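Technical annex B. To support the medicinal chemistry partners, we prepared a structural model of the target in complex with zinc ion, based solely on the information shown next.
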Amino acid sequence: MITVNGETFMFKCENPNCYNDFKGHQVVHKGGINDYGWWIVKCEKCGFIFQIYVGRDVNDSSLVSGGEILRKFDKEIDTEKDVLLAVKEINKITKNK
Ligand SMILES: [Zn+2]
């Protein structure tokens, strides 16, 4: 039987000059299939873009406060290298605006 377990987790903005707290809601499918992976998030205070390893389940978990999710990456499909590259690309686009 599949049950869904929710848990709140916190993480900080990776900009060393910013102390914004992010709050996420992690969804774990007990006995079910969980997709491990990363999010690329944007800080609502300083606009800093960085990746965060969410673990399971990357698709059903959500960001409650602190910023927004720009992209989600499934570990089955993407590697950490892909995620870092995507962060770089997004930063480039943002800076050229
Ligand atoms: Zn920040």
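Notes passed to the chemistry partners:
The radius of gyration is 14 Å.
Residues 3-96 form one domain.
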